[in-house]
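For the sake of clarity, the format in which proteins appear in this thesis is described at this point. The record quoted next illustrates the convention:

___
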Amino acid sequence: MLKFFLTILAFTVFYSATAQDSIFVHYLKRDIYEKKKEEMQSQFGRNKTIPLEIELECLTALSFFREFSNFKIEFRYKKFRTNATMMVSPTRLSLVKRKEKRTYIIEINNNQGKKKGTDIRDLSFNALVGIIGHELGHIVYYNKKNSFNILWMGIKYMLSKKYIRNVEHAADIETIRHGLGFSIFEFRERSLKNPKTTEEYKNKIRKFYFLPEEILMEIKKAKNKNAGQ
């Protein structure tokens, strides 16, 4: 209970931030982005394959990662073999291409198998944009690597729990840096409090990802760093 109140207190402090800091703490409202949908389709929908029912959320997340405007990214549903909500990776064929020519697949757990994540139908607009942003944060990291290093990343991800934690924390930091800090905060908060989310997945979140109160601390670090520039 104390932990819950501390989180609420920290959020209240950050949500009272000045307009200069609003990029780091911003609750995204569907109706605002509905009005921008056609513009976002034009600017960020090129080379993207997106299921219609989550098109607005995907375009909204992509609008915070403008460097991916011309990247080829496909969103698709899949039955997962691991507890996760979404996963991203470059296609094998695109690993032989230049970085800007790669194709990335963001897979969404359809929760029809034994391994489940948070059902995206249980998420708010803001929270769903947050987890999509987290996957885009991974692409930021991938795009800094050559093909050999990406393959080596995959091997280390399978062998080292510490490396998994480092990679997932790095994706969260990129999500925050791109302005979706509160979105990923809400995703983690909802995932951990949702009674339909399995304990196995909740334990994975606690072990490898930033917890909600840690995300708030990272938002504060990013805000202070931005203010000092």
Notes: The chain has ten helices and four strands. Residues 1-23 have pLDDT under 50 and may be disordered. Residues 23-224 form one domain. The CA atoms of residues 11 and 216 lie 7 Å apart.
